[in-house]
Protein backbone atom coordinates (compact mmCIF):
# COMPACT_ATOMS: atom_id res chain seq x y z
CA UNK A 1 0.00 0.00 0.00
CA UNK A 2 1.40 3.41 -0.99
CA UNK A 3 1.90 6.02 1.70
CA UNK A 4 -0.44 9.02 1.54
CA UNK A 5 1.17 12.44 1.13
CA UNK A 6 -0.47 14.43 3.93
CA UNK A 7 0.41 17.71 2.21
CA UNK A 8 -1.69 16.91 -0.87
CA UNK A 9 -4.26 14.44 0.52
CA UNK A 10 -7.97 15.33 0.59
CA UNK A 11 -8.89 17.62 3.48
CA UNK A 12 -11.99 16.64 5.43
CA UNK A 13 -14.58 19.41 5.44
CA UNK A 14 -12.83 21.52 2.79
CA UNK A 15 -14.55 22.98 -0.24
CA UNK A 16 -12.60 21.52 -3.17
CA UNK A 17 -12.47 23.00 -6.67
CA UNK A 18 -10.17 23.34 -9.66
CA UNK A 19 -9.54 26.66 -11.36
CA UNK A 20 -7.18 27.03 -14.31
CA UNK A 21 -5.48 23.75 -13.42
CA UNK A 22 -4.96 24.75 -9.77
CA UNK A 23 -6.37 22.37 -7.16
CA UNK A 24 -7.86 24.53 -4.41
CA UNK A 25 -9.16 23.48 -0.98
CA UNK A 26 -10.78 26.13 1.22
CA UNK A 27 -11.67 25.85 4.90
CA UNK A 28 -13.43 28.61 6.83
CA UNK A 29 -11.85 29.28 10.23
CA UNK A 30 -13.41 32.09 12.24
CA UNK A 31 -13.50 35.21 10.06
CA UNK A 32 -10.75 33.94 7.78
CA UNK A 33 -10.17 31.21 5.25
CA UNK A 34 -7.28 28.79 5.11
CA UNK A 35 -6.55 27.69 1.56
CA UNK A 36 -4.33 25.01 0.15
CA UNK A 37 -3.49 25.55 -3.48
CA UNK A 38 -1.63 22.98 -5.55
CA UNK A 39 -0.18 24.65 -8.64
CA UNK A 40 0.86 22.09 -11.26
CA UNK A 41 4.26 21.83 -12.92
CA UNK A 42 4.41 24.40 -15.72
CA UNK A 43 1.63 26.59 -14.28
CA UNK A 44 1.78 30.22 -15.45
CA UNK A 45 -0.86 32.70 -14.26
CA UNK A 46 -0.80 34.74 -17.50
CA UNK A 47 -1.59 31.63 -19.57
CA UNK A 48 -3.77 29.61 -17.18
CA UNK A 49 -5.79 32.12 -15.14
CA UNK A 50 -5.67 35.49 -16.93
CA UNK A 51 -8.12 34.36 -19.67
CA UNK A 52 -10.56 33.23 -16.97
CA UNK A 53 -10.54 36.42 -14.88
CA UNK A 54 -9.89 39.13 -17.49
CA UNK A 55 -7.37 41.20 -15.51
CA UNK A 56 -3.82 41.91 -16.63
CA UNK A 57 -2.38 40.63 -13.33
CA UNK A 58 -3.49 38.60 -10.35
CA UNK A 59 -5.21 41.07 -8.05
CA UNK A 60 -5.20 38.87 -4.92
CA UNK A 61 -2.73 39.03 -2.06
CA UNK A 62 -1.15 35.71 -1.18
CA UNK A 63 -0.07 35.50 2.46
CA UNK A 64 1.09 32.21 3.86
CA UNK A 65 3.60 29.47 3.38
CA UNK A 66 5.13 27.77 0.34
CA UNK A 67 5.30 24.20 1.59
CA UNK A 68 6.64 22.56 -1.56
CA UNK A 69 8.12 23.69 -4.86
CA UNK A 70 9.35 26.94 -6.34
CA UNK A 71 7.50 29.98 -7.63
CA UNK A 72 8.65 33.04 -9.56
CA UNK A 73 6.65 36.28 -9.37
CA UNK A 74 6.90 39.33 -11.63
CA UNK A 75 5.37 42.79 -11.26
CA UNK A 76 4.65 45.47 -13.89
CA UNK A 77 7.53 47.62 -12.59
CA UNK A 78 10.02 44.84 -13.43
CA UNK A 79 10.46 43.67 -9.84
CA UNK A 80 10.73 39.91 -9.38
CA UNK A 81 10.42 37.63 -6.37
CA UNK A 82 11.54 34.02 -6.13
CA UNK A 83 10.34 31.67 -3.43
CA UNK A 84 11.69 28.21 -2.66
CA UNK A 85 10.00 25.89 -0.18
CA UNK A 86 9.94 25.92 2.74
CA UNK A 87 9.37 29.66 2.89
CA UNK A 88 6.80 32.19 4.13
CA UNK A 89 5.25 34.24 1.33
CA UNK A 90 3.87 37.76 1.16
CA UNK A 91 2.81 38.49 -2.41
CA UNK A 92 1.04 41.79 -3.04
CA UNK A 93 -1.77 42.15 -5.58
CA UNK A 94 -0.79 43.02 -9.14
CA UNK A 95 1.55 40.15 -10.02
CA UNK A 96 2.08 37.38 -12.52
CA UNK A 97 3.46 34.10 -11.27
CA UNK A 98 4.63 30.73 -12.43
CA UNK A 99 5.80 27.42 -11.05
CA UNK A 100 9.50 26.80 -11.63
CA UNK A 101 11.07 23.36 -11.74
CA UNK A 102 9.81 19.81 -11.91
CA UNK A 103 7.45 19.61 -8.94
CA UNK A 104 4.09 21.22 -8.18
CA UNK A 105 4.01 24.19 -5.82
CA UNK A 106 1.91 23.71 -2.69
CA UNK A 107 0.88 26.95 -1.01
CA UNK A 108 -0.97 27.31 2.29
CA UNK A 109 -2.65 30.74 2.45
CA UNK A 110 -4.62 32.78 4.92
CA UNK A 111 -7.13 35.30 3.61
CA UNK A 112 -10.15 37.42 4.41
CA UNK A 113 -11.53 37.40 0.86
CA UNK A 114 -11.82 41.08 -0.22
CA UNK A 115 -10.35 42.35 3.07
CA UNK A 116 -7.07 40.40 3.09
CA UNK A 117 -4.82 43.40 2.50
CA UNK A 118 -6.42 45.63 5.12
CA UNK A 119 -6.77 42.90 7.77
CA UNK A 120 -3.20 41.64 7.31
CA UNK A 121 -1.52 45.02 6.72
CA UNK A 122 -0.46 44.28 3.16
CA UNK A 123 -0.29 47.05 0.52
CA UNK A 124 -3.17 47.01 -1.98
CA UNK A 125 -0.59 46.93 -4.78
CA UNK A 126 3.10 46.19 -5.17
CA UNK A 127 5.41 48.91 -3.90
CA UNK A 128 9.06 49.31 -2.99
Commentary on this structure:
- The protein is mainly beta and 128 residues long.
- The chain has one domain: Sandwich (Jelly Rolls), CATH 2.60.120.
- Helix content is 10%, strand content 43%.
- It contains three helices and nine strands.
- It has helices spanning 45-48, 50-53, 116-120; strands at 15-19, 22-29, 32-39, 62-68, 70-74, 80-84, 87-91, 96-100, 105-111.
- It has a six-stranded antiparallel β-sheet with strand order 1-2-3-9-4-7, with no helix packed on it. Strands 6-5-8 form a three-stranded antiparallel β-sheet, with no helix packed on it.
- A hairpin with a 5-residue loop joins strand 5 and strand 6 (80-84).
- The radius of gyration is 14 Å and the shape is globular.
Which structural traits does this protein have?
128 residues; mainly beta; Jelly Rolls; 3-stranded antiparallel sheet; 9 strands; 10% helix; 43% strand
CATH level 4 superfamily: Jelly Rolls
Write the H/E string, N to C. Answer: EEEHHEEEEEEH
Give the CA-based shape. Answer: globular
Number of DSSP strands?
9
The fold-level CATH name is: Jelly Rolls
Q: What CATH architecture would you give?
A: Sandwich
What is the strand arrangement across the widest sheet? 1-2-3-9-4-7
CATH class: Mainly Beta
How would the blueprint of this fold be written?
Layout: E1 15-19, E2 22-29, E3 32-39, H1 45-48, H2 50-53, E4 62-68, E5 70-74, E6 80-84, E7 87-91, E8 96-100, E9 105-111, H3 116-120
Antiparallel strand pairs: 1-2, 2-3, 3-9, 4-7, 4-9, 5-6, 5-8
Amino acid sequence: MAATDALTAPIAGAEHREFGGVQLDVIRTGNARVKRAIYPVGFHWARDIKPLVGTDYCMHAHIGFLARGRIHMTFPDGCTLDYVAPQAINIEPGHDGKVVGSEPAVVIEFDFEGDTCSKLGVPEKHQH
